[in-house]
Amino acid sequence: MSNEHSATEEHAKRHKHEGPRKHIVAFIFSILLTVIAFAAVSAGEVNQSFIYIVLIVMAFLQVFIQMSFWMHMKDRGHIFPTVGIIFGIVIVFTMVIMAEYWAWW
After folding, report:
1. What's the pLDDT band for 32 if we cut at 50, 70, 90?
2. C-alpha angle 14-20-10 in degrees, rounded to nearest 5
3. Where in the chain are the domains?
4. Radius of gyration from C-alpha coordinates of the chain
């Protein structure tokens, strides 16, 4: 019984529960980013290039929040999913660049 108790304590030391506070803040920030993106698109008299830049920045921030807080990629021990995501991004960018190269020639 003492081995089970010490294993539980060890698990608790390594994986501290964050509580709902950070999740609520991340949720509010995600909603705020969505509202900003919607407002940028809804504003009719704004330069279209500026809207594209705002949307791309909001998308990157949204991905960072989703990965960090909801998928817990900020925690230790997530090296293999991180490597997989980076590998997937490299493959997608390579495919897009090759498709553009193929279409131009």
Report:
1. very high
2. 15
3. 2-74, 77-105
4. 21
Q: Do 61 and 36 contact (CB within 8 A), yes or no?
A: no
Return all residues near 72 (Cβ < 8 A) that are at least 6 apart: 78
Q: What is the reported pTM?
A: 0.59
H or E segment to which residue 15 belongs: none
**pLDDT per residue over 37-64, tens digit each?**
999 888 878 888 888 999 999 998 998 8
DSSP states along 79-103: HHHHHHHHHHHHHHHHHHHHHHHHH
How many other C-beta atoms can be found within 10 angstroms of the C-beta atom of residue 84?
Answer: 10
Question: What single-letter amino acid sits at 105?
Answer: W
Both tokens of residue 85? 């995501």
> Quick check: 63 and 29 in contact, CB under 8 A?
no
- Two structure tokens written together for 51: 């809207």
Q: How far apart are CA 79 and CA 82, in angstroms?
A: 5
pLDDT of residue 8 exceeding 60: no
